[in-house]
Amino acid sequence: MKSIKDPVHGYIQVDSSFLPLLDTPQVQRLRYIRQLGFSFLVYPGAHHTRFEHSLGTMHLAHSLGTRLALPREDHAHITVAGLLHDIGHGPFSHAIEGLSEEILKKRHTDISDQLKTGILGERIYEAGLDPEIIYQLINGRSQCSGIIHGDLDVDRMDYLLRDAHYTGVPYGTVDAMRLIRAMRLCETGIVLDMSGVQAAESLLIARTLMRPAVYYHHVSRIAEKMFSLAVYEYIKDDPSLLRSLLMADDAACMQHLLHADNPSVSGLAQNLYERRLFKRALYVGKDDVREVHLITSESFLRERKLAEKIADEAGITPEQVMVDIPAFPRDIWMEVQVQDKHSLCRLEEVSPLVTTLNETRRSQWRLGVYAPKGLTDVVSDAARSVLNIKPFTRQERLL
């Protein structure tokens, strides 16, 4: 047994049989992948990594497995799934996952090959574990997968606590141990006792409040879009280069971009490195977009086509415009059911707060169009025309 000091959970105990997994290149690489991508440009303390988050998730998965009294083999698989669930992330976490999905048809959870081959595959087999079971748990395809992949999963518990700690944003408070103590396993999956409803509500509130404050902060979004555009320009003539970039860590990927032969790539990377970011030319909610249903499919390539149209309308080059259309937030729908005295019911039935939070999440959605300083006015006018945006309100003019 090895003890690792963690600022969020105190001491994390790692079973000696899992230490060889901890020392694999796939897991150690996570030390060099920032958990929050470019959020450190907003919150200077946000330099924590996927490695420590993976340790925290493993710790909570082990605690929940103990609470549920899982059989020894299931408990081990759940614990290791918590450790390995993020090994498929590319540099700066989610920053170029959209490109990966569109060009390579690959998500960060598509890690079956990594789990079954190479050093990691050998260590998994040596630990007496089945890589397929781990893969199914990470991708939400087993009875116990709600522990790792669900609306009340240990992944969310850890990243909300950890992200709040390192950013200094006070909205991510989650009583993870209370939630874990209120969970139990039945034939339909994980069930939450009534005693855990308030803790579950607290987690949902934290998710909702952290979205605009951290996860969708406009500066972070601008930086991610600049990075995505640099990567796209870098691989445009040879899409196979994307595979090698996805295997790189943050620093290695940035070095590729900074030293690229294409000046538009190296220029974007240098501006990112020195925090010379694009500015908001347009930043509006769903009520300002007349045809929101036509443009809310999250697609980097579609955003680039819209950026080209806006640039043409504004009389500038496409590289001077970035369009940011996040996926429209889905309603919170809890797969975990609540056990009252007589029956099972959905959390929405015992907590009217869920409906309010869904409305809040929808109101938080923003469409952004970004441009270099000095071009925001002309790009704003062009974007409003191309995207069929409603006229300025008085408040927007004051901003």
UniProtKB/TrEMBL annotation:
Domain of life: Archaea
Name the UniProt record assigns to this protein: Metal dependent phosphohydrolase
Organism name: Methanospirillum hungatei JF-1 (strain ATCC 27890 / DSM 864 / NBRC 100397 / JF-1)
Single GO MF descriptor: dGTPase activity
InterPro entries: dGTPase-like (IPR050135), HD/PDEase_dom (IPR003607), HD_assoc_2 (IPR045509), HD_domain (IPR006674)
Domain HD/PDEase positions: 46-169
GO biological process: dGTP catabolic process
SMART domains, per the entry: HDc
